[in-house]
Amino acid sequence: MALMPKRRKSKDNPYKLDYNDIEHIYKVTFLNNNNEIQTVIISEEVFNTFNKFELEDISQLHKVDKHIDGRGINDGEYTDIVLYHTALDIQKNVEDIVEEKLQNEELYKAINKLSETQKRRVKLYYFDNYTLQEIADMEGCSPKNIYKSIEQAKEKLRKNLKK
Question: Given this model, what pLDDT does residue 7 score?
């Protein structure tokens, strides 16, 4: 299963996109009117259109952020104050950023060593923020099976990351 990048989403975006690179299936998942998770297989063209909309939403959210925090406004003292406070929020030094990036790369390599089932379940639970029950409903099994699978995957990840 291809790992879709975790994206910031507008509060008005009610769906999640997914692509299964083994079966070459594109999916969109959302809550239906009964508040139940609904997954629909879609064409690549529809997937790309949804993906384009998400990217446009992200771009718009960034523009709004820049306007709100003053990075997009050139009005002297206000901009200086905002930049000063923004700079105070930056607490990581270059070494920390590089170390975090290397750790993330190691984690993704370790995740890719998991079975397809474990990889999918870890992705849904930790990256897409689905609950055990939601994943179980999607896969037609019990939440206990999902929990055991994720725990086994975590143990494999611990072993692979200690090496």
Answer: 61
Task: Please list, in sequence order, all residues whose beta carbon lies within 8 angstroms of the beta carbon of residue 21, skipping any fewer than 6 positions away.
Answer: 1, 2
d(C-alpha 130, C-alpha 103), whole Å: 24
The string of pLDDT tens digits covering residues 6-19 is 666 656 667 788 88
Question: From edge to edge, which strands make up the β-sheet containing 37-42?
Answer: 15-20, 25-31, 37-42
User: Phi/psi of residue 39, each to 5°?
Assistant: -115, 130
Q: Tokens 């639970």 belong to which residue?
A: 125
- pLDDT for res 72: 47
Handedness of CA 129, 25, 44, 31 (dihedral sign): negative
Q: What is the pLDDT of residue 71?
A: 47
The angle, 0 to 180 degrees and rounded to 10, between the axes of the packed helices 94-112 and 143-162 is 120
Would you state the torsion angle of the CA atoms of residues 48, 51, 55, 60, taken in this order, to the nearest 10 degrees?
110
Here the tokens at position 157 are 């990840």
Location of structure tokens 């700079």:
87
Q: Please say if the pLDDT value at position 46 is more than 90.
A: no
82 pLDDT band (50/70/90 cuts)? low
Triad 73, 83, 6: Cα angle to 5°: 90
